[in-house]
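WARN no homologs supplied; continuing
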Amino acid sequence: MCNKMILVGLNLDFFGEGGTVGEPEFRFELSNESPEYKIRGYIDKTITYPDGHVKIVDYKSSKAKFSGDDLEANVQAMVYSLVGYKILKAKKASAEFIFLRFPKQPLQQLVFTESQLKGLEHYLSYMYELTNSLTAETAKNNLAINCEKKKWLCKAGKWECPYLRPFKYHALLDAEGNVARTALKKEDLKPEPGQTFTILEAAGCPGHPNISSPTKKIINNDFD
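OK structure emitted
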């Protein structure tokens, strides 16, 4: 299956004929003042053509293609188009999804108007304000335990949410003792000069106080 998916990708103008292919996994960070928002992410591939058109390509391995509102008002595609105009300085930007499991019709291409992208910016600003106003208390409002339809996400049969119970994870501390980065696996952390390793323990889900515990910090700079 993987071989077939690779062939689908290679056979669909992989080298961007007539254009220039940008660096793969292009990382973007976009800050805007009015309306205010900040977004960042990665783009699989960009192709820039001589006429100023920038095509943003995203490879999908999912079992289903987009349809309905998920296609017509696709936020991912709209954000990519916004990046095309604001960061890549495109005269025209388009987003192209390539669904690798659909060799007969793998393409879904989207182009958005200026008014649509302006609407997106106001939506991003709303979400930016909302997320910046979150606190430990307001975040609890969306816990699965507080919604009858979502309670099964806490525990169903032998399966349970991986964040239900306390668990240990790894962190890097800077010279002042502040947490610089965290990861579940130590090998995913690359220390910089002056940083040390430590182990932290998450308390578990606050919606289940009977099985969660107070947050603990376990310092051990030389653990293996």
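Helices lie at 2-10, 69-72, 75-86, 114-132, 136-139.
OK
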